[in-house]
Amino acid sequence: MTVVLTVLGTILLLWGILFLVWPRLVFAPVYYPNRDAFHLHPERFHGLERVRGGNVVLEGVVYEPESPRCTVFYFGGKEQDSVALVGKLSERFPAWRIIAFNYRGYGRSGGRPGERLLLEDAVALVAYARERFGPLMLMGYSLGSSVAAYAASRTSVTQLILVAPFYDVPSLARLRIPYLPAWMMRCRFETARYLGGVSAPVSIFASRDDEIVPIEQSHALKAKAPRLAVYKEYSGYNHAEILGSDRFIADVSKVC
């Protein structure tokens, strides 16, 4: 009996620790100070700023090509400074107008990240961008795929592009820690559920060699998209490589 109680006590202790640190497993705020492209081409990059709940200032940027072929709002991954990344994205997609804002706590944005706040911010920011720049496509990578899917389910967009997406956080977490109780998962980011409310065409790009999000997650998401327009699987790219891969760039460029 003593052994059983000890084991149960250890399990509960580990679960309690996981519950406390859970947000740190989902979010990893970063700031990349390298914004050289913005300074070298001030005619192309324009800073944006929005004040959200709690008087939190969110940092944003828009890349303006001479003749935009389309307008894309980008939502970054767990460890991305989305604003800084626009410099690189503009090199890969020079004819796209690209808009991005950093999540709370990321880059120069104030506040602290949290699921509800990120999702609410996304809806408001997309509505602001659509009013200022016209019809939008949303593109989300990894964590950003869930945020983009949520925003697309609640605002009018022309297309939704998901790159290295996951089904939801609980199913992804249980691949690493089986039998993880639901009450522990304070951030869920239920991408599959959000997709059910998306009326825009959906494109999904994933890699069979993704070491973070197994390809089966994309298979399951594919079945949840009411208007699946494009589904592409690649080999040879890990989770971090797919976004900058030549094959992905060539294929997603056809969407816009």
UniProtKB/TrEMBL annotation:
It comes from the Bacteria. This is Alpha/beta fold hydrolase. It holds the Pfam family Abhydrolase_1. GO terms for molecular function: hydrolase activity. The lineage of its organism: Bacteria, Pseudomonadati, Campylobacterota, Epsilonproteobacteria, Campylobacterales. It comes from Sulfurimonas diazotrophicus. Gene3D superfamilies: alpha/beta hydrolase. PANTHER family: ALPHA/BETA HYDROLASE DOMAIN-CONTAINING PROTEIN, PROTEIN ABHD13. Residues 92-198 form the AB hydrolase-1 domain. The keyword Lipid metabolism does not apply. Keywords: Hydrolase. SUPFAM superfamilies: alpha/beta-Hydrolases. InterPro entries: AB_hydrolase_1, AB_hydrolase_fold.
